[in-house]
């Protein structure tokens, strides 16, 4: 019932070491995956049986779609979990097309660019120290802001370029409008400049429909840096 990737001994159960390698392909952070494992491994033995493994997969799907990683989320309707290795029989293959429109609208991007430029980027990049005050001005919880940073620093260099900064601002405004910040970056939010022809399983939701509707204009929040001349 399990892929040979995770049940190499064909024993009907999955060891923590094998599951860790497989679950990492979900693109979720180690913190989230650890929480998923703790919930799935009900007896704490470091081994998952069939039912527990499917609970883990279900929780991965919940996390990838911005839902809380909790047992209460298991009954909610979510698409199948997505992993980067398409050789698994659990997966359906597809590609993230460069034709998928970027979720950041042109008019919003212009405003984000103005904020970016006001923060004195060096070589087109902003350090975490320069971005942090802008994020904190949103008054969002620190754990949410940490996830925003982690998702927007797409190349994991500890700096944000112009497009990555736009992703961060987009996610902040989502959170301010009570939209859940996803656990992994949706395809539509990956800037076209950072898209690669990689294979991604299944069809993934772009952004919640309510988000599409609510981003017709930016809400009047006090997130802009003090020296930015922009006003809503």
Automatic annotation (TrEMBL):
InterPro entries referenced in this protein's UniProt entry, alphabetically: EF-hand-dom_pair (IPR011992), EF_Hand_1_Ca_BS (IPR018247), EF_hand_dom (IPR002048), EH_dom (IPR000261)
Pfam families reported in the protein's UniProt record: EH
Domain of life, source organism: Eukaryota
Stored SMART domains: EFh (SM00054), EH (SM00027)
One term of GO molecular function: calcium ion binding
Species of origin: Eudyptes sclateri
Gene3D superfamilies from the UniProt entry: EF-hand
Protein name, UniProt field: Epidermal growth factor receptor substrate 15
KW Transmembrane helix (keyword) present: no
GO biological process, one term: endosomal transport
Domain (EH): residue spans on this chain: 1-84, 108-196
Annotated keywords: Calcium, Metal-binding, Receptor
Keyword Nuclease: no
Entry GO terms, CC: clathrin coat of coated pit
Annotated SUPFAM superfamilies: EF-hand
Ranges of residues in domain EF-hand: 28-63, 140-175
């Amino acid at each position: 019932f399990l892929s040979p990737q995770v049940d190499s001994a064909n024993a009907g159960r999955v060891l923590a070491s094998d599951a860790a390698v497989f679950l990492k392909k979900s693109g979720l952070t180690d913190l989230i995956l650890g929480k998923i494992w703790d919930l799935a491994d009900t007896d704490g033995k470091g081994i998952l049986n069939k039912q527990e493994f499917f609970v883990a997969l279900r929780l991965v799907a919940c996390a990838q779609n911005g839902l809380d990683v909790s047992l209460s989320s298991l009954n909610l309707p979510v698409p199948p979990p997505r992993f980067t290795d398409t050789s698994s029989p659990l997966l359906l293959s597809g590609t993230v097309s460069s034709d998928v429109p970027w979720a950041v609208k042109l008019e919003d991007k212009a405003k984000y660019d103005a904020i970016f430029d006001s923060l004195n980027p060096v070589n087109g990049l902003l350090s975490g120290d320069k971005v942090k005050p802008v994020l904190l001005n949103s008054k969002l919880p620190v754990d949410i802001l940490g996830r925003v940073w982690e998702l927007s620093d797409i190349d994991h260099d500890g700096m944000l370029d112009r497009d990555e900064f736009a992703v961060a601002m987009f996610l902040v405004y989502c959170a301010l409008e009570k939209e859940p910040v996803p656990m992994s970056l949706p395809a539509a939010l990956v800037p076209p400049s950072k898209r690669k022809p990689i294979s991604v399983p299944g069809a993934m939701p772009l952004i919640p429909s309510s988000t599409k509707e609510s981003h017709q204009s930016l809400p009047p929040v006090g997130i802009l840096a003090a020296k930015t001349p922009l006003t809503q």
